[in-house]
Amino acid sequence: MTTLLPRGGIAFFGGYSRHMNRVPYRIGVMVFDGCFASEALGFADLLTVANQAAEHLHGDAAPRFEVAIVAARRRVTASGGVSVGAVAVPTALDLLVVPGFELLPTQDLDARLRALGREVDVIGEVAGRGVPVASICLGAFLLGEAGLLDGRRATTAWLFARALADRYPKATVDEKALIADDEGITTSGAFSAAFDLAMEVINRVSGGEIARVTARVTLVPDGRTSQAPYVDDAISAVPGRRFSGEVKRWLEARTPQPYSLAELAAAFHVSTRTMLRRFRAETGESPLGHLQRVRIGKAKVLLEASDLCLADVMSKVGYLDKGTFRRLFTSHTGMSPAEYRRQFRRSPDPGVHSGPSTASTPGAADVYVRATGT
């Protein structure tokens, strides 16, 4: 479905993708009490750099992006007690961006969302005018409250993906997706995904050259596609019911040992069928599925923090066949064990770190870097 916007030259996320007539692309970034100001302002700052890159490389007299920090209230205090200045949400917008907010898994989400009822109403009104809406991190919950996720694919911070799926069952939630774009409604992953979303906007509106230059001068990665490598089941685990909790502890104490459903069922004095039925009813997965996640999680830690070879890592988490282990690891993280180690290996000297360049070939980016002294 193509999203048509008030002005004929631009559409976004599912429609036309290029800034064709040099009319500035107008973005409102909504702030509200308790929001993460760094997500809102970081998103806006990256577009400012893109404007500077376009001016230097192409002599643009007018900015390609006009970004306003907007709010549904006169005064906004962001996370950490930071006061943020904002203007009223304008009628003419090409995109509304909603950042995430401060929340712990143990806090009352219902109360938090009720307090943001005015923001939810404004989001719904803007979307109702045909303006695309995008969220960062937990901003997806505000889109959900406005009814914008129903029937759509969505994502959010992986730690809260299950909560998003439970609260909005008509949405298809992909916890591994970094950006999910569905018919003018776009959601993105946790915290630093603000930069990934900004890079997506820059690339679609101004093209790959400006996006590459922006990424290079700001050290922002422009090739991330998934949250999967960052998912940590030890953090996201929630207490299960008594039966599944005991089964999980039994499995986790025997991680390196071969898995046997019959042995597991016997340990809890139930049939294999009952074991599968009860465990799935309480957790939504099989005992083997849980064990695989635990094993991959421990393998990730070993790849990050040890010098163990792959065979030793495998043996410590219960795998002997390299092909099987690689397939499972890639399925869970989106990258091979070797790729994961290269990206997440902890340097022995915390003062020394080198990473891949965000631009692989010389060109306009190098000219811009040399000219600005960046």
Description:
The chain has about 375 residues and is of the alpha/beta class. The chain has 16 helices and eleven strands. It has helices spanning about 35-60, 110-115, 115-130, 140-145, 160-165, 195-205, 210-220, 235, 240-250, 260-265, 270-285, 285-305, 310-315, 320-335, 335-345, 365-370, and strands at about 25-30, 65-70, 75-80, 80-85, 85-90, 95-100, 135, 155, 170-175, 180, 185-190. The strands form three sheets. It has a seven-stranded mixed beta sheet with strand order 5-2-1-6-7-11-10, with helices on both faces. Strand 10 (about 180) and strand 11 (about 185-190) form a beta hairpin. The chain is globular. The chain starts with about 25 loop residues before the first strand and ends with a helix. The relative contact order is 0.10. Mean pLDDT is about 85; it is low at about 1-10, about 15-20, about 350-360 and about 365-374.
